[in-house]
Amino acid sequence: RKEVEQDPGPFNVPEGATVAFNCTYSNSASQSFFWYRQDCRKEPKLLMSVYSSGNEDGRFTAQLNRASQYISLLIRDSKLSDSATYLCVVPPMRFGAGTRLTVKP
Amino acid sequence: NAGVTQTPKFRVLKTGQSMTLLCAQDMNHEYMYWYRQDPGMGLRLIHYSVGEGTTAKGEVPDGYNVSRLKKQNFLLGLESAAPSQTSVYFCASSRTATNQPQHFGDGTRLSIL
């Protein structure tokens, strides 16, 4: 089992849709997690941090399930500008391969 | 507010040539990292440093060397470039390794012919 695995995607959704990505991890000792957003040919940028059961920031919600060892990212009311690749990170330095999202008009 | 700065942004090398990528951060972070990103592979850790004067191997260290002589700088060296090292290289820094996010530079696109 890979240390960090993500839904491979791609996800193609219409504007206004709700979409969710999952990320599973193998290190049960991990205490904090991060979601990054990466636009094409750009550097990853921090989207959300998850330190306990979950976190919410506007249209974005991250949830943590320690028993099943996965975190999820929910995007509500998708915008065209949400189109990007979303990376799950399990510290100290393990990145998932990313899930690509395309939001279409 | 520079954050993490990588130089150069682009470089084309011939097989066997050597070069050094420079990463500089102005956030007084202890931890610094070098990753490579290949299509469909996500980011893979090459080397990292937990403080000035220290370095450690990551997931894919072969063919690379690093140095951290000053806290703010982390250098990645390719002694004899190979086509397999064609990639996008990202440097990152963080305050700690576990519960603080990493801040990334905008990458170096390296092609080895």
Describe, in short, the structure shown:
Chain A has 105 residues and is mainly beta. Helix content of chain A is 0%, strand content 54%. In chain A, the strands form two sheets. In chain A, strands 2, 4, 5, 9, 10 and 11 form a six-stranded mixed beta sheet that branches. Chain A has a five-stranded antiparallel beta sheet with strand order 1-3-8-7-6, with no helix packed on it.
Q: What does this protein look like?
A:
The complex is a heterodimer of chains A (105) and B (113). Chain A has 105 residues and is an all-beta fold. In chain A, 0% of the residues lie in helices and 54% in strands. In chain A, strands 2, 4, 5, 9, 10 and 11 form a six-stranded mixed beta sheet that branches. In chain A, strand 6 and strand 7 form a beta hairpin. The termini of chain A are far apart. With 113 residues, chain B is mainly beta. Chain B is 0% helix and 51% strand. Chain B contains no helices and eleven strands. The mean pLDDT of chain B is 94.
Number of helical runs of chain A? 0
Q: Estimate the global geometry of chain A from the Cα principal axes.
A: globular
Computed over alpha carbons, the radius of gyration of chain A is 13 Å
Strand tally of chain A, please? 11
Question: Helices, strands, pairings?
Answer:
The complex is a heterodimer of chains A (105) and B (113).
Chain A: E1 4-6, E2 11-14, E3 19-25, E4 33-38, E5 45-50, E6 54-57, E7 60-65, E8 70-75, E9 84-90, E10 94-95, E11 99-104
Parallel strand pairs in A: 2-11
Antiparallel strand pairs in A: 1-3, 3-8, 4-5, 4-9, 6-7, 7-8, 9-10, 9-11
Chain B: E1 4-7, E2 10-13, E3 19-25, E4 31-38, E5 42-49, E6 56-57, E7 64-67, E8 73-78, E9 87-94, E10 103-104, E11 108-112
Parallel strand pairs in B: 2-11
Antiparallel strand pairs in B: 1-3, 3-8, 4-5, 4-9, 5-6, 7-8, 9-10, 9-11
Task: Summarize this structure as a short list of keywords or feature phrases.
heterodimer; A: 105 residues; mainly beta; six-stranded mixed β-sheet; five-stranded antiparallel β-sheet; B: mainly beta; seven-stranded mixed β-sheet
